[in-house]
Amino acid sequence: MTGPRRTRRGGGAPVAATNDEHVRATPETPRVRVLTAEERRAFVDDINARMAQLKQQWERSGHTDVHALRGALIFLETHLPPWVFSGVMQWLKVQEMQPPYHGIRWLMVRAARIEKKLLAEEAYEYVSKKLANTPARAKTDAIMKSFQKVESELPPGLRLSPQRRPRRPRVK
Question: What is the per-residue DSSP string for the chain?
Answer without folding.
Answer: --SS-EE-TTS-SEEEESSSS-EEEEEPPPP--PPPHHHHHHHHHHHHHHHHHHHHHHHHTTS--HHHHHHHHHHTGGGS-HHHHHHHHHHHHHHHHS--HHHHHHHHHHHHHHHS---HHHHHHHHHHHTTTSTT---HHHHHHHHHHHHHHS-GGG-SSPPPPPPPPPP-
